[in-house]
Amino acid sequence: MQAQAYKYALIAVFCWSTVATAFKIALNYLSPSELVLYASIMSTLILFSIVIYQKKISEVKIHIKSNFKLVFILGCINPFLYYLILFKAYDLLPAQEAQSINYTWALMLAFLSVIFLKQKLTINDILAGIICYFGVLIIATKGEPFSLSFSNLDGVFFALLSTIIWASYWIINTKIKVDPIVGLSSNFVIALPIVVVYFFLTQPLVIPDIKGLLAASYVGFFEMGITFLFWLKAMQIATSTSKIANLIFISPFISLIFIYFLVGEKILVSTVIGLTTIILGLIIQQLKTSK
Q1: What is the DSSP string of 68-137?
Q2: pLDDT tens, 176-227?
Q3: How many domains does the chain have?
Q4: How far lies 170's CA from each of 77, 135, 176, 219, in Å?
Q5: How many CB atoms lie within 10 A of CB 115?
Q6: Are 51 and 185 within 8 A, CB to CB?
Q7: Vertex 233: Cα angle to 227 and 238 (nearest 5)
Q8: Which is nearest to 288 in space by CA: 125, 171, 170?
Q9: Which one is predicted more confidently, 291 or 37?
Q10: Counting beta carbons within 10 angstroms of the beta carbon of residue 201, is it exposed (0 to 12), middle (13 to 18) or buried (19 or more)?
């Protein structure tokens, strides 16, 4: 079973390694709000196809009716607010910088859990925080962390804000015990009308470039949709979930390869050093979880 779990996990890791590239390609043709709209439509279709296949439509209805307020809040966060902020960060920053900073969300989750879930902050959390955010500083200043000269302060702000929003999403999720595919599908059903209304209030509808539409569909299919199920399946059948979870750390490095060849960004040494520093911090932070 562990070998099968590795297969599912590696498929998920590979798919997630491509999405930063897909974000950047899509944003060459679409605005962040357009990308949220078209990707959300694709993801909703995919998730609901899975729900129909698994014969869980009734569970979705019951879940929305029983937990409407929480489902509404979660839908406002994911996909609406989180991806709107994340795509804004990718629009302002090189893909290599935005995706590296976004990986600190797991650390933000630990910090917010202290506030909202009354969990204790450990020495590992504090040390990991210092290391991870120093890595962010290395990336954001292009290798000159003590100069405090940011290449794009707005972009860094949005990237860090996305980590707070994403960590908050998972903390709120602890309030609901539901089948993950049912919960995620419910969020998207509630969120899609909000995304549509926001889109029409903020910009005119124009026929999107086919390349942008294809890239948005890819984002909706893989980043927001089916890859989640591969990862969930891997975690469900694994005999050692910690070994599976650690595979996620190879994703950002594979992503840099795609960014270099498909986006055409020159990968900076400062990005590699900063990303390695962030991953080191996250590994230190996870040591307490493993124990």
Answers
A1: HHHHHHHHIIIIIIHHHHHHHHHHHS-HHHHHHHHTTHHHHHHHHHHHHS-PPPPHHHHHHHHHHHHHHH
A2: 888 888 999 999 999 999 999 999 999 888 888 999 999 999 999 998 888 8
A3: 1
A4: 10, 24, 10, 20
A5: 10
A6: yes
A7: 130
A8: 125
A9: 37
A10: exposed
Q: Position of tokens 């990707």?
A: 39
What amino acid occupies position 96? Q
CB 63 within 8 A of CB 178: yes
Q: Residues 229-259, buried b or exposed e (16+ Cβ, 10 A)?
A: bbbbbbbebbeeeeebbebbbebbeebbebb
C-alpha 11/C-alpha 188 separation (Å) is 23
| CA–CA separation, 286 and 259 (whole Å) | 27
Q: What is the Cα–Cα distance from 131 to 88, expressed in whole angstroms?
A: 25
Q: What is the pTM of this model?
A: 0.91
Structural domain containing residue 172: 2-290
Cis peptide before 79 (omega within 30 of 0): yes
Q: How far is CA 121 from the centre of its chain?
A: 24
